[in-house]
Amino acid sequence: MTPLFTVAEIRTIEHAAAQRLPEGALMQRAGQAGANEALDLLPFTTSRARVLVLAGPGNNGGDALETAAHLAHAGAQVTILHFPPTSAPAAERDAALHRAVNSPARLMTLASAADGQAAMQGTDWTLVVDGLFGIGLARAITGEFAVLVATVNQLRCQVIALDVPSGLDADTGAIVGGDAGTALRATHTVTFIGDKPGLHTAEGRDHAGLVIPSSLDIDRDLFPPARAKLNDVALFAHCARRRRHSSHKGSNGSVAVVGGARGMAGAPILAARTALNAGAGRVYACFVGDPPAFDAAQPELMCRSAQEYDFNSAILVIGPGMGGSASGAEMLASALHSHSPVVLDADALNLVAGSGPLQTQLAQRSAPCILTPHPLEAARLLGMSADQVQADRPAAARRLASKLAATVVLKGSGTVIAARDGTIVINNTGNPALATAGAGDVLSGLCGALLAQGWPEWEAALAGAWLHGMAADVLVSEGAGPIGITASELIPAIRAAVNRLAAQHGS
Ligand SMILES: NC(=O)C1=CN([C@@H]2O[C@H](COP(=O)(O)OP(=O)(O)OC[C@H]3O[C@@H](n4cnc5c(N)ncnc54)[C@H](O)[C@@H]3O)[C@@H](O)[C@H]2O)[C@@H](O)CC1
Ligand SMILES: Nc1ncnc2c1ncn2[C@@H]1O[C@H](COP(=O)(O)OP(=O)(O)O)[C@@H](O)[C@H]1O
Ligand SMILES: [K+]
């Protein structure tokens, strides 16, 4: 289980740890950790490696100077582009500079980032170490530093970021300064003290690459209980069940997907097929528009008119392709009036966003409730723009969960799952193959199927996000994507993932 800590928490831990250690110990450990990861990436003949180390003006630059000295002593050809501090540096940073100067590394002290860019030209670098800025970056990277970042981003070699890729907000995964800023794209990030939410959501996955946490050997008692974690099978495996020989379809619950206004019948069909293939015993597809007689590709589904369905008799997945009509709103109100557990997606969320009474009705329900908004749906529910949601996904998910008293699955790269009490989990399975129409319908059907099979709301949301992403990861590893995977193809891959989970962890 990987806990995730905010910058404020990391600063508190660091401060407490520093009291127990000799001056500079943490920076030295950080530099050693960076060097260890770098050495793993270098060719066996270290002397052939040309390593470019960017050492910024703050303590992140201090880490980089320590890393550079280690790599130079290990035999690599190291060039340091050093940006001196603009105010009096910490003694530990001075000591790091001293070690770098006394190492075989070539140190270029630069007055401007433009000098740095010139110094980078003409060498075929094996590896770049990014120690420009860490968690202390206070404003957008602009001007000459932005040009330097763009130059590194065009290199094709591996790039290790120290602590955080320069320019990325470690709390939110947004680029510091938004559109005015930029961030360095690393292939690996060695992150210090504890892992951080921003490395795994929003822009995080594209900029951090593979994340390697390094605790710097800080005593465990200095870490607070984590309010955020990375998603992990260990968080939900206890709910997995193997099928009993004595089971029957009634043992595995019923799901009713409610949606399908005229012209949008495919969305509930995708959700319903997923629910069936993820193990629900009986699945109804209920249409706000005219129902088809049956689904030819999945005749096991029971296609009904939503108006004629008893919403108390199944787990309800409401919203796929439902539209915003008065009859959709009426179906939603009666579904919320029922005692059934619900998954609210797509148009159901838009209808809730536009109606105070529906919001009150939702917040007052006692049955399990999972909301699966994408960023624009979340924005409508919060009365803000999608850009504002993306600027701080953990905060948006938390606010929604508390406002509507539900488990919220804020979708997108690094899906954020939030509980009513403010706990969050960030999912790191999945990939851009999922950026395709209908992938969200598949997720809502999967969550419904897990609820139907007795999973509690929180674990159903965690496992739903994880299995959905894992299915896409398996398809991509088999060469089927990420380009061109369709939502329908996810369904058999989800079935395989559900069965693997039950076989490996089910009781
Ligand atoms: N605090 C900790 O927990 C530890 C920190 N360490 C390292 O120290 C880092 C934090 O160090 P700092 O707080 O010094 O911060 P940083 O090194 O991240 O950056 C601050 C420096 O950048 C300058 N700066 C900020 N925004 C700028 C901009 N947009 N353009 C140009 N210059 C800008 C500031 O004036 C300051 O000199 C961590 O990320 C980590 O790498 C490690 O040494 C280990 C312990
Ligand atoms: N780039 C991406 N990386 C990882 N997951 C993604 C990405 N883009 C989309 N997804 C996932 O795919 C699903 C898309 O859902 P949604 O936006 O509701 O699509 P639709 O309404 O077409 O079904 C969500 O589960 C989301 O988290
Ligand atoms: K960095």
List the helices and strands and how they pair.
Blueprint: E1 3-4, H1 7-20, H2 25-41, E2 50-55, H3 59-73, E3 77-82, H4 91-101, E4 106-109, H5 113-120, E5 127-131, H6 143-154, E6 158-162, E7 188-192, H7 204-208, E8 210-214, E9 228-230, E10 254-259, H8 266-277, E11 282-287, E12 302-305, E13 315-318, H9 326-337, E14 342-344, H10 346-353, H11 356-363, E15 369-371, H12 375-382, H13 386-391, H14 393-404, E16 407-410, E17 416-418, E18 424-426, H15 439-452, H16 457-477, H17 487-505
Parallel strand pairs: 2-3, 2-5, 3-4, 5-6, 6-7, 7-8, 9-18, 10-11, 10-13, 11-12, 13-14, 14-15, 15-16
Antiparallel strand pairs: 1-9, 16-17, 17-18
Helix pairs in contact: 2-3, 3-4, 5-6, 8-15, 8-17, 10-12, 12-14, 15-16, 15-17, 16-17
Bound molecules: ligand NAX, adenosine-5'-diphosphate and potassium ion (K).
Question: Explain this structure to me?
Answer:
Strands 1-9-18-17-16-15-14-13-10-11-12 form an 11-stranded mixed beta sheet, with helices on both faces. The protein has a 7-stranded parallel beta sheet with strand order 4-3-2-5-6-7-8, with helices on both faces. The chain has 2 domains: 3-226, 3-Layer(aba) Sandwich (Rossmann fold); 233-505, UDP-N-acetylmuramoyl-L-alanine:D-glutamate ligase (3-Layer(aba) Sandwich). The two termini are 21 Å apart. The protein is α/β, with parallel strands linked by helices and 507 residues long. The chain has helices at 7-20, 25-41, 59-73, 91-101, 113-120, 143-154, 204-208, 266-277, 326-337, 346-353, 356-363, 375-382, 386-391, 393-404, 439-452, 457-477, 487-505, and strands at residues 3-4, 50-55, 77-82, 106-109, 127-131, 158-162, 188-192, 210-214, 228-230, 254-259, 282-287, 302-305, 315-318, 342-344, 369-371, 407-410, 416-418, 424-426. The mean pLDDT is 96. Ligand NAX is lined by residues 10-11, 14, 26-27, 30, 56-63, 85-86, 133-141, 145, 162-164, 192-193. Potassium ion binds next to strand 5 and strand 6. Its cofactor is K(+); Mg(2+). (6S)-NADPHX binds at residues 59-63, 134-140, 163, 267, 321, 374, 441.
